[in-house]
Amino acid sequence: QVQLVESGGGLVQPGGSLKLSCVASGFRFSTYAMNWYRRPPGKERELVAGISSFGGVTSIADSVQGRFTIFRDNAKNTVYLQMNGLKPEDTAVYYCYAHKAWGPDYWGQGTQVTVSS
Fold first, then answer.
1. Residues with Cβ < 8 Å from 42, sequence gap 6 or more?
2. According to the model, what pLDDT value does residue 25 have?
């Protein structure tokens, strides 16, 4: 059974940090590129960060550049999103997404991040 399970969300004050984790199971994680998306309240889902299958290539959205970092540990079937300098506009449900060419893609259920004083 394929699963992507996010964790690490919560309530944090502006300027704080959180580290999200997404643990994969049921598929060959190391062959998949991984993305983090988020859906702010009342808005469309947006791409936050991406990382290639072996971690050699990463991309970060302009809105979080310099504050967020994506990395992965293929030995642990896990992708992470380190979020520093959080702002209220970072409030959203964060999702991990696994994808590859010529293969099925998978979504996690999401984890809520709320940035508020």
1. none
2. 97
